[in-house]
Write a structure and sequence with these properties.
It holds the Pfam family PfkB. With 308 residues, the protein is of the alpha/beta class. It is built from eleven helices and 14 strands. It is 36% helix and 25% strand. The structure holds adenosine monophosphate.
């Protein structure tokens, strides 16, 4: 069984969308990634940090999915990372209202011995120095390292960010972040510039407008499934990354062609994530539901054309 190691935030989130509001729910990139990747039969560990205010029921969500949590550090007397955001009416953009790093501020991840040889590594959105420290702890080069980041690190830790980008295989960012990172308006040019920074594959997520995969001169595009109701997009990007990497780890094939399938899986899982608040929908999701939606996805995107 392939091993996937994820490093990322675990959080309390407060979320406000045009459809409602929730004051405190389970959040953080590592939770969304771990839950999403658990739909594939792979071995997983999540490395993160929480305070002793973090409920044991939230940890149980990961252990119920057989995810190794033994290297999630619990800081006695510490407060768990807290994030709050408010979505605009289009649901594609949001304002971050609060970021309280709390225990995340001094996070120094330790990798479980059994996962130091994990072929698949997900570096969730964190300070790029933490992401570099994780790679430095691995005795051999993993098969595939996927990096997520955000505009904040581009503004504040540019040089360190460039170092980690040059060491990973895939970067997953949204369209706005890709434009900021490359200083290009065209996403095609942006991806080319980002590949010149040393990363082999660039995945650009465009929310309800789908996702693009770039590798050398090849481009693949997957639309997002048109949904009647989008309730809360929080975690969609991380759920996408968990599906993308979970699928690659399960199939153990990192060819460009197989990455196309991984993009479809990532998009399919993200389409569930947005249907309810926070992680709620992902927690009730079954493999059967995923299969049905994958077939819907196939129908949506397949056509035969008669040349006139
Ligand atoms: P996404 O909607 O996929 O971008 O991910 C949202 C999740 O990222 C939320 O659950 C937050 O707790 C988490 N998050 C937001 N800001 C940060 C940050 N600066 N560092 C780590 N995690 C974050």
């Amino acid at each position: 069984m392939s091993k996937l190691l994820t490093i990322g935030s675990m959080a309390f989130d407060a979320i406000e969308t045009p459809f409602g509001k929730i004051e405190k729910t389970m959040g953080g990139a590592a939770n969304y990634i771990g839950i999403s990747a658990s739909l594939f039969d792979i071995e997983q560990a999540v490395v993160s940090v929480i305070g002793d205010d973090y409920p044991s029921e939230y940890l149980k969500v990961l252990t119920d999915r057989e995810i190794d949590i033994s290297y999630i550090e619990i800081v006695n007397g510490g407060k768990t990372f807290f994030w709050s955001g408010k979505y605009h009416n289009d649901m594609n953009t949001r304002d971050t209202l609060t970021t309280q790093l709390n225990v995340l501020e001094h996070f120094s991840p330790k990798i479980p011995e059994y996962f130091t040889d994990a072929p698949y590594i997900m570096l969730g959105n964190l300070h790029p120095q933490i992401q570099l420290d994780v790679l430095a702890q691995l005795p051999t080069r993993p098969k595939l390292v996927v990096l997520d980041t955000m505009g904040f690190w581009m503004n504040h830790t540019w040089d360190t960010l460039l170092k980690i980008i040059a060491q990973v295989d895939v970067i997953t960012i949204n369209d706005e972040e890709a434009r900021q990172l490359s200083n290009e308006c065209s996403l095609v040019k942006a991806a080319q510039k980002i590949m010149q920074m040393g990363v082999t594959y660039v995945v650009i997520k465009k929310g309800e407008h789908g996702a693009l995969l770039f590798h050398e001169k090849d481009i693949f595009f997957a639309p997002a499934l048109p949904l009647e109701d989008v309730f809360d997009p929080t975690g969609a990007g991380d759920t996408f990354a968990g599906g993308f990497l979970g699928y690659l780890a399960k199939t153990d094939d990192i060819s460009f062609n197989n990455m196309k399938n991984a993009i479809i899986y990532g998009s399919t899982l993200a389409s569930f994530c947005v249907e309810q608040f926070g992680t709620e929908r992902m927690l009730s999701l079954t493999k059967d539901e995923v299969l049905k939606r994958l077939l819907q996805f196939k129908e949506l995107t397949q056509f035969e054309i008669k040349i006139a």
